[in-house]
Amino acid sequence: MNIKPVLYVVGLFLMLLGVVMVIPGTYDLIAEEGGGAGFFQAAIVTFVCGGVCSMSTRFTLFRLDPRQIFLLTTICWMAVSAFGALPFMFVEDMSFTDSFFETMSGITTTGSTVIAGLDQVDRGILLWRSLLQWLGGIGFIVMAVAILPFLKVGGMRLFQSESSDWSDKIMPRSGSIAKRIVGTYLALTLLCALGYWIGDMTWFDAINHSMTTLSTGGYSTWDASIGHFKSYWVYWNGTVFMLLGSMPFVLFVKFARGHTTDLFEDSQVQTLVGFMVALWVVMALWLTFEKDWQFFHALTLVAFNTASVVSTTGFALTDYATWSLFTTVIFFFLMFVGGCSGSTAGGMKIFRFQIGFKLLQLQLKQASHPRAFLVQRYNGQEITNDILRSLVAFSFFYGLLIALITMLLSALGLDLITSMTGAITAVSNVGPGLGSIIGPAGNFIPLPDAAKWILSVGMLMGRLEILTVLVLMTPSFWRN
Amino acid sequence: MNIKPVLYVVGLFLMLLGVVMVIPGTYDLIAEEGGGAGFFQAAIVTFVCGGVCSMSTRFTLFRLDPRQIFLLTTICWMAVSAFGALPFMFVEDMSFTDSFFETMSGITTTGSTVIAGLDQVDRGILLWRSLLQWLGGIGFIVMAVAILPFLKVGGMRLFQSESSDWSDKIMPRSGSIAKRIVGTYLALTLLCALGYWIGDMTWFDAINHSMTTLSTGGYSTWDASIGHFKSYWVYWNGTVFMLLGSMPFVLFVKFARGHTTDLFEDSQVQTLVGFMVALWVVMALWLTFEKDWQFFHALTLVAFNTASVVSTTGFALTDYATWSLFTTVIFFFLMFVGGCSGSTAGGMKIFRFQIGFKLLQLQLKQASHPRAFLVQRYNGQEITNDILRSLVAFSFFYGLLIALITMLLSALGLDLITSMTGAITAVSNVGPGLGSIIGPAGNFIPLPDAAKWILSVGMLMGRLEILTVLVLMTPSFWRN
Ligand SMILES: [K+]
Ligand SMILES: [K+]
């Protein structure tokens, strides 16, 4: 395999990353925060390394085959994490392990953090964390739009179910779709920031939080997370935009172009909204009657935190793991769910549950009426053998990966709850786990370095739909 | 639907159950244990009720359609649990809830118990518990042989993958197969009892434990379970026969008829044995080096307890949940695995993992070589859309059922570990869970009554491959 074109593109991405580092650097200079120099050093190192990488591998024929794209995707994400870690090292004197973890957690929009005392941290660093998540979120969507369909063109069955949403739409080339999606993403981010600002956040807090809300990332500028702002308006603004962040962005593009019904008629969106509302009612009533909470207060806290976990954002509003045993168990299972495909959210994704549920219904009908001929469709498409295979393979390895990471973490001496929820929260890109260490009120600092590296791999694999990374580890990938 | 033939068969089963109750009753009379009268009362009530049920619905045309068989299967299992509970009520004055739980746990070969102080309990009751598991075990295999293929004949896709082992064998009618399987089951039980007796068990203990070993049930006659017998011979005898109990019994029938290679060449058996040996080496080495255990001692304890959990037997040899965090996590995941299809074991079953793994391999190969044409086979059969659908439907609801039971248990005030492992251990028919209440050293007595009923439903659904019960809850089942 010729890896030169791969390195060329990776170099371009690093140069871009270097340029972005100038933003928090400049902010620090203007706000006299003291972190400016560190950012500019990091920017120069990153830009130069990227430049050298690109220049030395520049070539004319720019055609990538599927295998090169697989390699490119994984290497890009890893290189950005490695260089994106530099500001944390230069400005905050953090170790490479912690810096890499924080960056990987950022660009995969996971949001698990190893920084405590956010209230005292350099504000450029806070901005950098938000920027990483914002870029990671849009990077993920564009990847789903511009890269995955290309892999399909090459006969790729792997992402057929993921990208099938695209194939049947009358849309021009993916480049222009990508541009429109970026525009929509930017517009929604500004709207969200405006909402937060109206809720009495400062502009700095509003912009940071809107970037990490839309990207379903979940980094905050305060240790108390969103709970720092005592405002129902802020909480509901967050709830709405976290859910928007976990819906297919292509539908927003259509919405903006006048096709408003597509959004409301989308099967994933309907299921997501219906599921959330049902959940809110059950949990809010439970807390009202069992715990004597005031109903609207309960509803707000439930809505925000469940939206946070299902959208895989990971903001915490009070330590929800201490509410009650029943609600804790619900939060545990919500970590698997995830948002819609084509959004910034992680997790198993709504459509996989929908297909599982539809097949279950079909099986049950077939059982009592064996002679009936039933074909299963999803979103108008027949669920073919290919889609089923990919579904089984994905779900199977999703479970296996979580089991494997849980075992490795426990071998490092972590307890069952910490190991298991740590694995789930990483692979699903949620952010916080459960238990006293990494729960909503906790932090990932106390974990051993080895655990941070294991979780970094889990976050990366979870973000790249697992198989994209796994395929690099097979001998047949490297054979011609 | 005409439910008369269903009630007729259920009545026959109850009459048989009444007759079997005479065995522990007679034992109690001879051993002067005092429980005799209770058993005979229960036997009479059961026999008479069964007789009335049968006589009143007797009819000539005996033909059952698939829907009647579904209904029959579930009602049979429930009726046997209800009447099998009578001896516990009459002899030990247990509540109906506890008695029903203990019986359901018995005939589903789960082995979760609500009886403490086994060392002091009426010995006829101990024998009754073992008999319930032994009958449940053989009942489950015969069901897989004689009932599931019949459902398939009716166009039933549901169990195609389960029963496909049968269709391609040159075997006479299922009746004679069933007889041979019962013979093999009996022979293996006697062999196992002989092994335990050589290891210095009394005949009473040897026969009770061999019945609960072969059926992968796990009821013991002592509070310390198998750990009561301080004998490596006993432990290894148990390990071997628990694993035999979780292998396809049709292979033993063939083995006895001279086709010895079929057993060793079977894909499920190979995977099971290979997996166990690898697991033993890893865990025994871990305990030797990390915990300074003596190697052979560690190997024995690891082999016995992992075989116990994977075969879904549930005997405990020391409180393995306290060995170390790493091994506890392994035991947690082992609760899902289960034995081979066509055995007495529960769980997800080995072949489902094999298919998942094969599809994953296929996807990865296809990803890097998009133009290659790859067909996936399992045991020589192509993995068709039907099989995939049934696999997805089963696995999906397996997960959903565990999540649902976990939530219900936590709503009753049980902690996350107890709720979750309680749900898994019930649906997988393992027996013990983890945590301080229902762990290997614990007992299900402290659970609230509602939890016991919920777990009873879980055990039943797990045993009947879930969909068999679930289909009764769909409106289309009751429509013509
Ligand atoms: K997140
Ligand atoms: K069992």
TrEMBL record, chains A, B:
List where the protein spans the membrane. Answer: 7-27, 39-57, 69-90, 131-151, 181-199, 233-257, 269-289, 295-317, 329-351, 391-414, 426-447, 453-473
Under PANTHER family, the record lists: TRK SYSTEM POTASSIUM UPTAKE PROTEIN, TRK SYSTEM POTASSIUM UPTAKE PROTEIN TRKG-RELATED
Q: Which UniProt keywords apply?
A: Cell inner membrane, Cell membrane, Ion transport, Membrane, Metal-binding, Potassium, Potassium transport, Transmembrane, Transmembrane helix, Transport
Q: Which family does it belong to?
A: Belongs to the TrkH potassium transport family.
The reply on keyword Ribonucleoprotein is no
Domain of life where this protein originates: Bacteria
What are the protein's GO molecular function terms?
metal ion binding; potassium:chloride symporter activity
| GO CC list | plasma membrane
Q: Which organism is it from?
A: Parendozoicomonas haliclonae
- Localization: Cell inner membrane; Cell membrane
Q: What is this protein called?
A: Trk system potassium uptake protein
